[in-house]
């Protein structure tokens, strides 16, 4: 429909410190990470770019906006979950130390919050509020949002109306660096928002399909 808002979420490429829990920790992309994002974004069409303020998203978003001469909005709503005291720590080390409580969080993220960090419910709320605002403000537009794995997983859980039980958005979804999530939103005459999932694309799946052919 003409007033559908088209959303494409692009996960950042491989960053430095990739073996660590990167929430608000702010390393740049590696050279491979830039290549991954260039490959995933090469055929995308968009009117506006929105990005997380973290450098692993913002640096490439600025590059893309300049090349396409389009508007760039840096928006805190699309930054990664704040992992508090865990942020920047090795994921392997967090798993190995039961006293950290990371295992409990992983298995039930809606019930457990990272120490001094952000709750999963708060992450869900800020993402869905932004989607609703963007759907009203950019009706009929194509939005590219450069963001993070945790954000994209939560958006996917919302699209599928997942109940807040367990961790299916974490354990059941493969989401690679530079993955793409496509969905649209439609606002009806009663101002009700209707989202529709259109696709999740992992770069390795696309590459394997090309090789198979």
From TrEMBL:
<dbReference type="InterPro" id="IPR050275">
    <property type="entry name" value="PGM_Phosphatase"/>
</dbReference>
<protein>
    <submittedName>
        <fullName>Histidine phosphatase family protein</fullName>
    </submittedName>
</protein>
<dbReference type="GO" id="GO:0016791">
    <property type="term" value="F:phosphatase activity"/>
</dbReference>
<dbReference type="InterPro" id="IPR029033">
    <property type="entry name" value="His_PPase_superfam"/>
</dbReference>
<dbReference type="GO" id="GO:0005737">
    <property type="term" value="C:cytoplasm"/>
</dbReference>
<dbReference type="Pfam" id="PF00300">
    <property type="entry name" value="His_Phos_1"/>
</dbReference>
<dbReference type="InterPro" id="IPR013078">
    <property type="entry name" value="His_Pase_superF_clade-1"/>
</dbReference>
């Amino acid at each position: 429909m003409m007033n559908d808002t088209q959303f494409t979420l692009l996960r950042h490429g491989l960053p430095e410190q990739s073996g660590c829990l990167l929430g608000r920790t702010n390393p740049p992309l590696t050279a491979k990470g830039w290549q991954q994002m260039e490959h995933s974004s090469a055929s995308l069409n968009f009117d506006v770019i929105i990005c997380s303020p973290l450098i692993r998203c913002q640096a490439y978003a600025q590059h893309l906006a300049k090349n396409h001469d389009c508007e760039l909005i840096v928006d805190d709503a699309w930054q990664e979950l704040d992992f508090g005291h865990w942020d920047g720590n090795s994921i392997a080390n967090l798993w190995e130390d039961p006293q950290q409580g990371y295992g409990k969080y992983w298995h039930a993220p809606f019930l457990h919050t990272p120490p001094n960090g952000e709750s999963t419910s708060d992450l869900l709320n800020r993402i869905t509020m932004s989607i609703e605002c963007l759907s009203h403000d950019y009706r009929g537009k194509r939005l590219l949002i450069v963001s993070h794995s945790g954000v994209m997983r939560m958006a996917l859980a919302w699209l599928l109306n997942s109940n807040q039980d367990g961790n299916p958005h974490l354990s059941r979804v493969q989401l690679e660096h530079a993955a793409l999530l496509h969905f649209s939103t439609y606002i009806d005459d009663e101002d009700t928002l209707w989202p529709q999932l259109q696709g999740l694309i992992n770069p390795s799946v696309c590459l394997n399909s090309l090789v198979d052919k």
